[in-house]
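Notes to self after the Tuesday call (sharing in case useful).
The group wants a holo model before anyone commits to mutagenesis around the pocket. I volunteered. Ligand is 2-acetamido-2-deoxy-beta-D-glucopyranose. Logging inputs and output together so the record is complete.
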Amino acid sequence: MMWRPVQAGRTGKNMDSREDDDDLAAKVKPLRIGYSSWISKGYIVAALALVLLTLLSGVLTTDLSHSSGVPVVLKYVRAFKSEMLDLKSEVELKEPDSGSLQFSNPSNASKQAGCHKDSARLKVFMYDLPSEFHYGMISEFTPKKNQIWPQNVSDIPKYPGGLYQQHSPEYWLISDLVTSDMPDRSTPCTVFRVKRWQDAGVILIPFFASLSYNKYSRAPLLRGKKLDRNQELQLNLISFLSSQPAWRASEGSNHVVVIHHPNAMLHTREKFRSVMFVVADFGRYGAEVANMAKDVVAPYKHVIPNFDEDVDAALSFKSRTTLLFFQGAIARKEGGIIRQQLYELLGEEPNIIFSNGTTSNAGIRSATAGMRQSKFCLHLAGDTPSSNRLFDAVASHCVPLIISNEIELPFEDVLNYSEFSLFVNSSDALRKGFVTDLLSNVGEKEWTRMHDRLRQVERHFQYQLPAQIGDAVHMTWEAIARKVPALTLARNKQRRYARSQFISQKIAT
Ligand SMILES: *[C@@H]1O[C@H](CO)[C@@H](O)[C@H](O)[C@H]1NC(C)=O
Ligand SMILES: *[C@@H]1O[C@H](CO)[C@@H](O)[C@H](O)[C@H]1NC(C)=O
Ligand SMILES: *[C@@H]1O[C@H](CO)[C@@H](O)[C@H](O)[C@H]1NC(C)=O
Ligand SMILES: *[C@@H]1O[C@H](CO)[C@@H](O)[C@H](O)[C@H]1NC(C)=O
Ligand SMILES: *[C@@H]1O[C@H](CO)[C@@H](O)[C@H](O)[C@H]1NC(C)=O
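Result:
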């Protein structure tokens, strides 16, 4: 993490003493490499199996009911083919000027103003957890007695400012969902909140886990207390869920919870292992608790402002006089040894700025200026594989140079990061001259192509309220929706024998 959360009223000095907050808790170093690739292969096989199954079941049922089987089969095959083509055109985002992603079947209604149940891609049920689990953590939200949710769109309180923001996806997603059925909602939506869990595709657990970690886990324990408020909320959440029919029916496997801060729900996340997580990365998870097959990676909210004036790529190329920029803690404890080594290798190079940055406001100002003046911005693994820095680089239209072998990137199933970033293997990066040679050989034409692409994709990393089609809120919901069929498949498969067991038990008694 580059930017540490600041608490209101804390001074920069205190904040620095919090420098290691991400390291406080025990770390899980998973055996991830082999296992996770195995899992993702399994996922692909499962998805193919699902497609085949759908095809076959279509063929079988129509064969049974009608004699005119053949044309129907053709119809299925055609539909299947055109789906594959759609998928392909989604992945091949070749032309830099084509710009926006094509989302699967955006129905006509979703283009109309407002959010409609029938046009939404996914129906979501959300538990009515007391407000202390979500908006109640925000001091400007003043609910009336027994009030749980904001009443209307304008009633949504602002998320606490400053560096808390980087792990705020919980707030943007839940605010989008909670407003989806409000009468004053005038913008289109991907998800619609339904009142009955039986009608939902997924069930959302509305816990602001990252805010709870940031706000409550640092305060000294009150006298006589064994647990801090963050821990108490998590235990209360578990007991709440275990009494819910929706949870008991599925053991959580059709549930979603946003755990963006790497330390959020650190000690209870194991109990949620069947739930789909929305994470920043998998650095502090065992592969059996969180993985690419089940979970979704969401972007950090960038803290550096968008560089809206930066419209002319040729001008931008000329005015960016720094070749490579990095600002952040140079000595990191774990996984971050490479920072020190790279600093020794690159720190003295002309045109390269490698600065031992801080997270103060002055630090943000200097990072903003530095990223806007640089052609490439370094994203290095730190304590965890991901950080805010990548998304700050995108907002600054500074081409990311990603040196982080374990990183998982948001929406990489629909976005081709190679169009707007460079990746270097950590072991290559430590070869003398490798990085400087690579970067100085990127010509103006190639750089401006990546710059153009950055300007097109930056909206996919933009969290906002109201959300817009194609922004980070929408993209994350879409990513969740793409996981649902595979989860359903896994759940159905797991329960194949449940019924026969039930019957034979009845026989036995
Ligand atoms: C959607 O729009 C297309 C053309 O814009 C039209 O042909 C089609 O009938 C519309 N579908 C619905 C369900 O309104
Ligand atoms: C929205 O809700 C707030 C608080 O409940 C209320 O004061 C305000 O009048 C409402 N606004 C609209 C447009 O309904
Ligand atoms: C960076 O700053 C930290 C803390 O201010 C200091 O301990 C460390 O030596 C510095 N590293 C370099 C390479 O300047
Ligand atoms: C992704 O983009 C890179 C750079 O433009 C290109 O070489 C590569 O073929 C693209 N990958 C796919 C799957 O289109
Ligand atoms: C990175 O380099 C290491 C060591 O040379 C190698 O084992 C690994 O396969 C490389 N990874 C990629 C993605 O090229």
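Two things stood out.
The mean pLDDT is 81.
The pocket of 2-acetamido-2-deoxy-beta-D-glucopyranose (ligand 1) is lined by residues 108 (CB under 6 Å).
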